[in-house]
Amino acid sequence: MSRKQVRTLVFVVLAITVAIVWITPLYWAVSLSVRPPSQTFTVGGLAVPFLQFQPTAENWVTELGSQEMLRAVFNSTIIAFVASFFTLVLGTPAAYALARFNFQPRVAAVLAFAFCAISAFTATTFGVPWWLAALAALAVFIGFTMTVARRFERHLSNEDITMWFLSQRFLPPVATVVPFLLIMSQMRLIDTRLSLILVNITFNLPFAIVIMRQAFMDLPIELEEAALVDGASFFGSFARIALRLTAPAMAATLMIILAFSWNELLFALNLGTLNAKTVPALVAGSAGTRGIHFWFVAVRALIALIPPTILALLAQRYIVGGLTFGAVKG
């Protein structure tokens, strides 16, 4: 056997091993979901249906007939799709602006905005109405930027702004749970789908901006300049040229954001306690007074896995095209 054949055999064995490691939990969940509860711990080995036990759909019928599960699936669907849509709607124009225009905001104005935002939040924690605190903070910020901030000459560049957006992905979400909880409490949005939609938009927006900015930068600007020469406006060039050519990247970004929003658990546990409970939060709360019902956990885990998997398979070619957008130039 030649060295090339040995190397190929080693790679094949490693690939099969990795596939088995990843498939085993999924197989175990499927086997457990169709197993009678009385045989949860009594069936040994691989627990092959029809060979080691008689499968039943009782667990699926019970779970799919539960109002709690149906509400959780509905909440997760609404939250994930609405948050992903508005994240892309807000992030795409911002990414295009960072890719095509040169911004130079003053450092003093940025610091003043952060100070006013923190002051407004602090005021709401002491009982001041949030709209009044926001209005006062906005007035202070505008007054500062129109007077004192003009004396500072140091500016930020597009790269600095992009790096700031990227740094938001490194921020541990657990560090913002309490502030978000206080803000949503002041706005009376606790246990509502709107609160989880706003949180998911906040945390996924930097991701959409960074990815789409790179997609627009990989797009030749000469195409848009040709459209401008032919009489198109900046908005027309953006809508008819840039958006259409970066559609695969937008689809890939949308699918990734959708997966993040669907799988979000931390804020779903803290902000969606009952009416806005999502599927991940329902799976995490599967323990009952008699312990963990593993058969229900398996069914819930598969229900949480099936919708994004089907959606990813349907949009596979767009995802591959978006992830490889701009990889080859010529």
Structure description:
With 330 residues, the chain is an all-alpha fold. It folds into 2 domains: 1-56, no CATH class; 65-102 and 187-330, MetI-like fold. It has 15 helices and 2 strands. It has helices at 3-33, 58-64, 67-100, 107-125, 130-146, 158-167, 177-186, 193-218, 221-229, 234-245, 247-263, 266-271, 279-284, 294-314, 316-323; strands spanning 287-288, 291-292. The chain is globular, with a radius of gyration of 25 Å.
Question: What are its keywords?
Answer:
about 0% strand, 2 domains, 15 helices, two-stranded antiparallel ribbon, mainly alpha, globular, about 70% helix, MetI-like fold, disordered C terminus, about 325 residues
Summarize the structure.
Helices cover 71% and strands 1% of the residues. The protein has helices at 3-33, 58-64, 67-100, 107-125, 130-146, 158-167, 177-186, 193-218, 221-229, 234-245, 247-263, 266-271, 279-284, 294-314, 316-323, and strands at residues 287-288, 291-292.
Global structural class: mainly alpha
Write down the CATH class of the largest domain: Mainly Alpha
Going by CATH, the homologous superfamily of the largest domain would be: MetI-like
Distance linking N and C termini: 41 Å
N-to-C series of helices and strands: HHHHHHHHHHHHHEEHH
What is the averaged pLDDT score?
A: 86
CATH topology of the largest domain: MetI-like fold
Instruction: Give helix % range.
Output: over 70%
Number of domains: 2
| Overall form | globular
